[in-house]
Amino acid sequence: MKVNFGLTAKDYSKYRAGYPNELYERLKNYGVGIKGQSILDIGTGTGYLARTFAKQGARVTGVDISDELIEEAKKLDEKVHVHIRYLNARAEHLPFSSSEFDVVSAGQCWHWFQGDQVLKEVNRVLHAHGKLIIVHLDWIPLDSNIVSKTEELILSYNPKWKGAGGTGVYPDWLTQVAIGGFTDIETFTFDLHFKYSQEAWRGRIRASAGVGASLPHERIAAFDHQLKELLQENYPNIIEIPHRVFCLVCESN
C-alpha cells in the first residue's frame, strides 16, 4: 500500500492528538528532554514530539520526507513561539556529522523505516552513550467500541491497510535495537483516554495511513460520509477513545 502523509497534511496537523505530558515527565527520568540537550527527531511529521522537547529548552532538529508536513510543523511552531530546525531527509540517510546529537527520537514512525539501516545511522549521529527513544500513541480497539467499528469501515474501503487490531505494544523492536548494538533497553506503557468530537474523530481518521494518506479523493469523501452517518446514528457528540502510549528507551554503544 502506497502511503503519502503529505496528502493529508492539513488534517494531520489539526486532528492528530499530541503526546501527553506524562510521557515527557517519564522521559526526564531517563535524562531525555533536558534544557540545552541536542535532540534529533526523525520522521518528525508535524513536530508533535519535537515541539515539546523544544519547549523544555532542548535544541531540536526534525527530519521528514514530506515537505507538506514540515510546512505544517513550522506553522504550529510559530503559534507557540518555539524554533526547530527542519530538513527534508530520510532516516536511512541522515545528513549529519558523526556524534552530533545527545538524543534521537522517533514518534509514530518506526514501522515505516528500514530499521537496520536507520539504527546504523542513529548510532553514527549519536554521542557515545546517547539515547534513542521510540514512541507510539495508538488508539485501541476493544470489543465493539468505536475504534473497532472504525477499523472495520477502513478495511471495507482499503483491504490492504495493515493497521487494524493493534495492541499498542511493539515487543519486536526490543530485539531489533539489541541486534543493532544498542544496550540498556527499557520500555514503559500507560493507557489514557482522549475525548474527540465527532468531527475531530472523522478528521483524525482521515489523517490516517489507511484513509487520507492512501485513498483517492472520491473514496476518502465516500468513507468520511459513511463514518459521519455511523457516528451520528450511534454515538454522542463527544466520544472517549482509549489510547496506549508505548515508549522504548535504549543507549548507543
From TrEMBL:
The keyword DNA-binding does not apply. Keywords: Methyltransferase, Transferase. It comes from the Bacteria. InterPro entries: Diverse_substrate_MTase, Methyltransf_11, SAM-dependent_MTases_sf. Residues 40-134 form the Methyltransferase type domain. GO terms for molecular function: S-adenosylmethionine-dependent methyltransferase activity. GO terms for biological process: methylation. Belongs to the methyltransferase superfamily. This is Methyltransferase type 11 domain-containing protein. The lineage of its organism: Bacteria, Bacillati, Bacillota, Bacilli, Bacillales.
